[in-house]
Amino acid sequence: MLERTHTCNDLSLIHLNNKVTLMGWVHTLKCLGGRWFLNLRDRYGLTQIVFKPEHSFEWTYILKEIKLEYCICIHGVVESRVQNGGSCNANIATGQIEVNALQMYILNKSLNLPFQINNKNTVNEDLRLEYRFLDLRNPCLQYKILLRHKLLTLTRKYFNTHKFIEIETPILSKYTPGGAHNFLVPFKDNLFFSLSESPQLYKQMLMIAGFDRYFQIAKCFRNEDARGDRQLEFSQIDIEMSFSNESQIKSIIEQFLRYITKKLLNINLVIPLQQLSYNNALRKFGTDKPDLRSKFQHIDITPILERHHNIKNLFLKNIITNNLLLKAIHIPAKFSISTKEVEKIKKDPYLSNFSNFKILHVKINNNMQWMPQSLSENIQENILSKINKLFNIRSNDSLFLIISPLHCMQSISFFISSFLDKKFHTLNSSSFKFLWITEFPLVEWNESNHKFKSLHHPFTSPINGKLLKNLQITKSRAYDIVLNGIELGGGSIRIHDSQLQSKIFKKLNLNKKQFSFFLNALSFGAPPHGGLALGLDRLCMLFSNSTSIRETIAFPKNSNGFDILTGAPTVIKNVQK
RNA sequence: GGGGUGGUAGUUAAGUUGGUUAUAACGCCGGCUUGUCACGCCGGAGGCCGCGGGUUCAAGUCCCGUUCACCCCGCCA
User: Fold this and answer.
1) Closest by alpha carbon to A437, among A324, A289, A330?
2) Which of A209, A330, A376, A477 would be A493's cystine partner, CB 3.0–4.6 Å?
3) Element (H, E) at A184
């Protein structure tokens, strides 16, 4: 058999008259009477093969056997398209040449395809997953897998040059109830491992061991319902550092992000990145993972009302007396929204999850009056003008006013602003807005089981290393990194004091016994340390402008956690012993 | 577990207040075409309209159930 001499992206005019051998797949095939054109594809690119009738009377006979996606070998001579009387194709790297075929071998045939392989189709995802090996031939998907490969390479290079050591931690690990559901792996004698949810405790013990700076591209497993940005198994860029505070860790990550955005997207990321406290994020965006590209900010205007006790408008008065909040979302005049669309928002099924709230759409007329007029008449001038000033409101702008109790205000206001962002296409997909969220509460109260739950995880240090009497107002040393409204990663300064850790386990109602190995480890000179994990799949998704992480994983599960390609998971009748 | 949207040819979609033989594009098969590259032209095959009930003289279309997919909520320490 002939040996491949070049890939389908290699050849140019400098190879004129060379005899070459290419191997790949039939991308397109076109007959023009006696002359045939074939586009040969491999992962590097495309090369046009021409079959001239004067070289063989048999080409037509042979080529009639060839179909798309046959795997073939071409031996031929590199020729100039122009000199051959044709025209160049500026869309491909090899567009100036073509290979005049002398010999062709079919390496393997292909059945007719279940769907066409090109850049434009939007084929049903289940079918694509069933034929993932074909879908992965699509240059568009190959680009995403290649981007992931580049990211992995850059990650190793960056952390290596910053003295981080790559260390693998166990995937078969200890089952700890609480938190995400685990995948259990039977061992023997009724003993089970659990697939690692994250390398958290191992990496902390590496710090205790003195490795100082650790990183790993870690596979994590969580037995929870999947989403567009969540899979049962996923990868994270996991790091941990000793003797470092928040700003040192953030700085390492910021430089990493600047490095990869430059290398992968050719974007000059400005660092340090913007920061927003957890409370301010909720106040301004209604979410703890705001999208800074959003044009629709929220402002809580309850405090303005509270300063005016003699409000005539019953609607507004209601707010104060019932301990509700009033939030406004400002819509500049260039984004006009119809009454119909306002009704559509109000009737959206999502909002039926909430009760005791009200949504009002207010238009500002040319005289800077609020419409409907009844509203404007009953609210004192000074309140109106304060709000107008706060948002820098101009005529023909409009506002959404939301009145609701605290616990559903964030969800409702975020729902409305993201509706508006979608409607007006304000989220520029080539813009990358990173953001740190800081000052998270340490815990939150879980209404369903009447227990405190860590907001981050139970190993997160409280600010100043102390628990306040009121646990609910204790802040933690956790930080999340958000990119375009998606939580890219999170981390914290950890607890390195065994007694404090023990105390927190107790407050959180966690069984101390199951973590005794860890408390023991902390007792042997554990250094102060902290770290962070970045979602690798999500990073690839955002960098490749994909709508789900399934696009960035070679063999993903579908949204129900099934591997359509292999048919896993399966019922096992006779489990191996 | 809850909600939303969808399922029509190999693929992607259209299908009007229920009314002749269910359309189109791409793909596939056959023919023409010696410079195409989203080539072009002529012809052809291809359908349990997701599945099961119901209403009706008549259902792709209306109703009920069910299933599968995607998105969202719950969940993801």
Assistant:
1) A289
2) A477
3) strand A184-186
Average pLDDT over residues A524-543: 97
The model's pTM is 0.93
Name the nucleotide with the smallest C1'–CA separation from A122: B12
**Angle A243-A248-A252 from CA coordinates, rounded to 5°:** 115
Conformation bin of residue A449: beta by default, left when phi > 0, alpha when psi is -120 to 50: alpha
Instruction: Return the ∠ at Cα A64 (arms to A59 and A65), rounded to 5°.
Output: 105
Cα(A268)–Cα(A284) distance, integer angstroms: 27
Distance A423 CA to B10 C1' (A): 35
Residue A165, pLDDT score: 98
Residue length of chain A? 577
Residue-wise pLDDT tens digits, A180-232:
999 999 998 899 999 999 999 999 999 999 999 999 999 999 999 999 999 99
Average pLDDT over residues A144-159: 97
Q: Write A197-203 long-range contacts (CB < 8 A, 24+).
A: A197/A221, A197/A222, A198/A236, A198/A238, A198/A533, A199/A169, A199/A238, A200/A457, A200/A459, A201/A459, A201/A518, A202/A169, A202/A170, A202/A173, A203/A169, A203/A238, A203/A240, A203/A531
- Residue A327 CA to residue A330 CA, distance in Å, equals 10
Q: What's the Å distance between residue A31 CA and nucleotide B41 C1'?
A: 13
How high is the pLDDT of residue A231? 96
Which chain B nucleotides are covered by protein, judged by CB under 7 A?
Answer: 1, 3-4, 10-13, 26-39, 68-77
What are the E-state strand segments in A351-485?
358-364, 370-371, 398-404, 434-438, 443-446, 451-454, 478-483
Report chain A's mean pLDDT, rounded to a whole number: 90
